[in-house]
Specification:
binds magnesium ion; binds guanosine-5'-triphosphate
Length: 595
């Protein structure tokens, strides 16, 4: 089979080992304990063999029983004590495996969450939410299972096998070899099984992710489903994903079922060899009855690890497929991150924004969406961006907080290119109300105060007033303590927009960016908002995307985009005089009498 190349800096086991930092010592104790308690399993058959030889079937059995009765009791006591000791060790070992596996799980999960938080926009458009959730839950659990169970089983099986093999060889090497000659066949079968089952596990992880993505998209998009009465279609879609996952699970189990009869047959040959060859040795006097009893009592210690190996290999391949998914996230690096020499800028910006010959194309897009854009907004000014849908307005403003990077040209704030600023400092001073409003399932107060947890309720109310949200909030049953559902369920589109505006204002940004934020509010309310935005009690440069002339007419500059180019720019009056796109727009929206 073709070996896959490892795309990560470490192998899966090295990576796991790295994440066991701090508990490696205790894990070793656990592994050593596993070896010890498995070796202790041999004590029972060993002592029973001794008892049989000395007191039951040996030549001097009757005599030994009367003269060495104390030895008889001692052997029985030793058996009991070793069994008790074994129990104690097993208990301790279980605790250790559980502790270490949970510690690794906790650490990796936190690390991944941290990683996901710091990814750029391209990452979020590449990975689906359901897929990320699967990696953080199901796939991670397969890694915990590796630490808590698979490694333990490997050690258990091998130590048991090795201890039994050594004991057999030591007791009677001829008999031992007759039994052990079977083992290589099992190893070979397990190797063939591994090659067949590995791709199945990779497929299984994919199917699980698809099923979870289907459920997640359906639940978060339930309103659309209801609006189009597509419940049956969605149920069917999930049923298909569920069935796919189920069938792949069954197919994976079937792979083992194909190999299982061979392993089982070979393992079951052992008692036959024991009966046949052992019987002959016994008759010939090459094996004592006690040795025969010890061999019979321990034959499982050779056979069971062989049977277990299929299971272990299966679980190992599950780990391998899951860890690949997890490591992909673990080693993913955002393209947009702080440069090493990024400037610290804890203070407010003056708010000068410059676009210098900026062109931009999405990584996954075929054509540039912005071409050679240049304009400047001075501190405290308001610039309005207009243009028909899809012309690149959102793409343009996304370059200011560096959600994306221009393919050519530069975006500067206060004369510094944005890529030379620390992302945290840059974004902390930019208040953004996005086109798709996303609120958290929290109180209205919590949502407004999201960007600044230390903000007082008086200020929350003030910013709600600025965004003309205070009236409708006051009418809600619990006012600012009203909990809004996931994504703001329970609020109207315009109400959500106003809360999102209050949230953007609440950080007292040096630069305020509004992406169609008042599109769903009525003209009267919008007028009030316009007025409040002029009266803010902190200096602020505003970039406002809007379609309505009433929103843009008072801006210091209006930039009109068309197919990613600046079509025209200037003040309301200047653009009217040009009689271009803007002029036509005004004519359309206000009627000819305005002109
Ligand atoms: P409206 O919000 O509808 O008024 O449009 P807009 O002017 O804000 O357009 P936007 O900047 O969102 O999109 C400009 C172009 O970029 C459109 O042709 C989109 O199809 C494209 N686009 C937007 N987002 C992405 C993205 O994430 N990937 C790719 N490949 N293309 C995108
Ligand atoms: Mg847009």
């Amino acid at each position: 089979m073709k070996q896959e190349t490892n795309p990560f800096p470490k192998t899966k086991l090295q990576w796991l080992w790295e994440n066991m930092k701090g508990c490696r010592g205790i894990y070793f104790v656990g592994m050593a304990g596993t070896v010890v308690y498995n070796i202790l399993q041999l004590t029972v058959p060993y002592f029973s063999g001794k008892i049989v030889d000395l007191f039951l079937t040996g030549e001097n059995a009757r005599e030994n029983l009367s003269t060495h009765r104390d030895l008889f009791y001692q052997l029985i006591l030793a058996m009991v004590l070793f069994t008790l000791l074994r129990c104690v060790i097993v208990y301790g070992v279980c605790m250790i495996y559980e502790h270490v596996s949970q510690t690794v799980l906790y650490r990796v999960r936190n690390y991944l969450y941290d990683k996901i938080q710091r990814q750029d926009m391209t990452f979020y458009s590449t990975y689906r939410t359901g897929d990320l959730m699967t990696r953080l839950t199901g796939d991670l659990d397969a890694i915990r299972h590796m630490v808590a169970w698979i490694i333990r089983m490997v050690i258990e099986s091998f130590s048991l096998f090795a201890a039994a093999a050594i004991f057999f060889l030591y007791t009677n090497w001829k008999m031992a070899l007759c039994l052990l000659v079977i083992a290589p066949f099992v190893f070979w079968i397990i190797y063939l099984f591994r090659n067949k089952v590995a791709p199945m596990h990779a497929l299984l992880r994919e199917k699980l992710s698809q099923m979870n993505t289907c459920a997640q998209e359906n639940i978060s998009g339930n309103r659309v489903v209801k609006a189009f009465a597509r419940e049956d279609y969605e149920i069917e879609k999930f049923d298909k994903a569920n069935r796919d996952f189920c069938e792949t699970n069954k197919a994976t189990a079937m792979v083992w079922l194909k190999f299982f009869p061979y392993v089982e047959t070979i393992a079951n040959l052992m008692p036959l060899v024991m009966l046949g060859v052992g019987g002959v040795f016994l008759i010939k006097g090459q094996l004592t009855m006690g040795e025969y009893v010890a061999f019979s009592g321990l034959i499982w210690a050779i056979a069971n690890p062989m049977r277990q190996m299929g299971n272990i290999m299966n679980e190992f391949q599950r780990f391998s497929a899951a860890s690949r998914k997890v490591m992909e996230l673990y080693y993913s690096e955002p393209k947009i991150k702080d440069h090493e020499d990024a400037k610290e800028h804890p203070d407010r910006f003056d708010g000068k924004i410059e676009f210098k010959n900026v062109s931009f194309q999405y990584e996954d897009g075929d054509l540039p969406v912005l071409h050679n854009i240049s304009f400047t907004v001075n501190p405290g000014e308001t610039v309005a961006i207009m243009g028909e849908t899809g012309c690149g307005k959102t793409s343009l403003i996304n370059l200011i907080p560096r959600f994306y990077e221009p393919t050519e040209g530069k975006v500067l704030i206060d004369g510094t290119p944005v890529e030379n600023l620390r992302l945290h400092d840059l974004r902390r001073h930019i208040g953004l109300a996005t086109q798709d409003v996303l609120l958290y399932s929290d109180t209205i107060e919590g949502n407004i105060a999201y960007g600044d947890g230390s903000i007082k309720i008086n200020d929350v109310v003030k910013f709600a007033r600025y965004s003309s949200a205070s009236d409708f909030i006051a009418k809600m049953p619990e006012g600012y303590d009203t909990i809004v559902g996931e994504r703001g369920v329970g609020l109207s589109g315009g109400q959500k927009q106003r809360i999102s505006l209050a949230r953007a204002l609440a950080i007292r940004p040096s630069i305020l960016i509004l992406d169609d934020t008042t599109s769903a509010v009525d003209m009267e309310t919008e007028k009030q908002i316009q007025h409040s935005l002029k009266e803010l009690d902190f200096p602020c440069t505003k970039v406002i995307i809007a379609q309505r002339i009433s929103t843009t007419r008072d801006a210091d500059r209006i930039v009109v985009l068309r197919d990613g180019y600046i079509e025209e720019s200037g003040t309301h009056e200047e653009l009217l005089a040009k009689k271009g796109y803007y002029y036509e727009l005004v004519k359309l929206q206000t009627g000819l009498d305005e002109l």
